[in-house]
Amino acid sequence: MKKHSQTFPCFLLLSFVILFSSCQKQVDETSSTEIILEENQESTDPLPSWNDGKTKESIINFVTKATTEGHPDFIKKEDRIVTTDNDGTLWSEQPAYFQLFFALDRIHALASEHPEWKNKQPYKSVLENDMKTLMAQGEKGILEIVMASHAGISTDEFASIVKDWIATAQHPTKKKKYTELVFQPMLELINYLQANEFKTFIVSGGGIEFMRPWTEEVYNIPKDQVVGSSIKTKYEYKDGQPTITRLAEIDLIDDKEGKPVGINRYIGRKPVIAIGNSDGDLQMMHWAESNSIKNLQIYIHHTDSTREWAYDRESHIGTFDKALDEASQKGWALVDMAKDWKVIYPYELKD
Amino acid sequence: MKKHSQTFPCFLLLSFVILFSSCQKQVDETSSTEIILEENQESTDPLPSWNDGKTKESIINFVTKATTEGHPDFIKKEDRIVTTDNDGTLWSEQPAYFQLFFALDRIHALASEHPEWKNKQPYKSVLENDMKTLMAQGEKGILEIVMASHAGISTDEFASIVKDWIATAQHPTKKKKYTELVFQPMLELINYLQANEFKTFIVSGGGIEFMRPWTEEVYNIPKDQVVGSSIKTKYEYKDGQPTITRLAEIDLIDDKEGKPVGINRYIGRKPVIAIGNSDGDLQMMHWAESNSIKNLQIYIHHTDSTREWAYDRESHIGTFDKALDEASQKGWALVDMAKDWKVIYPYELKD
């Protein structure tokens, strides 16, 4: 795995993204008698890595009412749709979107097939690990890198490349696998919602085909419940074999206004719970808010410079500015990572 | 509801499409003891409207092996993906795709807002119920009708219009609601597959937002498991309200090569069971066939001129020619509607 420069200037990307962990796939199984079942339910904290307080309470209250038949806020199962962002919401996103690291590694891996890249921007700066020059080339340069690293191969090949990368690549500063940098409290939240028959969807600016090879294992979220940015594809027969080839052309940017569009395209229903961490999730929140069914907005605020990263209004990744004002003003659930979360990453549980 | 001309020449469409019935949402519930459970399972025919024979046997054999742990053809739950066409596979499609009738009715309904349509083709021929002239204008004319009837409004409005129409509109010759023209044996097959933990997806040339308002109730297939043709959309705030507006621009034609593309976009996995009725489903069959997991192709052959319609190689709707040869040659499950199905429509059960 190539080493990247340690100085990452903030940068805008088209956005793209991943995860792993000891994701619990089932709620605790209870014993056979009714009494023990009830006792267990009362005594088992569904969100053990969350500190008690207003945020945790608001989530548990919402779910309890939504699943209590006869309650005015009861929600029918088919309407229990949850949409959650990925980068900065389910896993970390600093110093840059993890999918960008994938793209950079892929350019290194492909370099031998493209000797001309040595002297051609934006590839030259990637191959020289010169992030500053790369970033100076702006969105156009990044887009070229993303396309060169993501397109031109079949969907099967791409899935296999992502799988191999995610299984081995290391985060430049945390020195952990990227899928170890998922948020333990969010894994618990997904698990809790699924146990209460909410259908959980990822709705991410990250690439849909970058996420699908690992979201099932890491988050217990099926491939068909992952919504993300996409490039166009083409079906063809290569040597008689049916193949879907990835084209170097944007299909959907699943960020900002693209999130409700993606939700409508893939889910066909407004969410009742929307979870995000940045201004890029605001339109998704509004879309959930426009649901005629009772709904909940949850915002993750990165406040922990020790265990994770602390950033909001000034950050060029996961900028949380306009949405921070609106979340405070409207009383949306605002997760203060430093205060609300006992641990950040699953490996802290094992320490 | 406007009456259409009774003479429908065959026509090509971009393809688009619906259903209703006494769709059983659950498998028969069994009594409490193990013995009764086993007896029930053995004695209950999961496909009661299917005549015994090679076709029924091949389906039940496939499902039984796929769900028997330890069997070499066992399929893990997450891989149990079923994709089924809609028009001509789950409901009838003659004398024309039902969604076209919706489009024509919609043009009539909108006519008062567009006085210029009276003298302007292709609208003029629609308003005069002159199908021959309409069809003579070819795909361009049909596309204009589809766009004028499907675009320019919000997704919420469109869903509500479809719901109202499907609840009341009548088929021109059968004199039944369109959702009564679903195939009872297919409802049983969907129910049987779902009971065996297959995830059932519609993959149709029909419009995704034309199908979603009713597929849940009629087929017990959730909105997010419906894949179809789509037009582009735009997220915006109208009077401060979040709105998704339908644009008059094609996004995906989910037919032929578009079917594997749609499957990859929405599901991210190859099917293990693919069901269709026309040459337009052939690429979907090949995509399923390229699955490394054991898979099954099912083709519905319209052979019943009395109870439904009989057509195949020469039909301009649901043309079944190249695929008929390939199905026979490869030994795919070929459903002979006249021979294999005891009843066609659910209402026959009540007669």
UniProtKB/TrEMBL annotation, chains A, B:
An example Gene Ontology CC term for this record: cytoplasm
Its EC number(s): 3.1.3.3
Required cofactor(s): Mg(2+)
Superkingdom in the source lineage: Bacteria
GO molecular function: L-phosphoserine phosphatase activity; magnesium ion binding
Chemical reaction(s) catalysed: O-phospho-D-serine + H2O = D-serine + phosphate; O-phospho-L-serine + H2O = L-serine + phosphate
Keyword line: Amino-acid biosynthesis, Hydrolase, Magnesium, Metal-binding, Serine biosynthesis, Signal
Keyword hit for Transcription: no
Pfam short name (any one): HAD
Signal peptide residue numbers: 1-27
EC class: hydrolase
GO biological process: L-serine biosynthetic process
Pathway(s): Amino-acid biosynthesis; L-serine biosynthesis; L-serine from 3-phospho-D-glycerate: step 3/3
Name of the protein in question: phosphoserine phosphatase
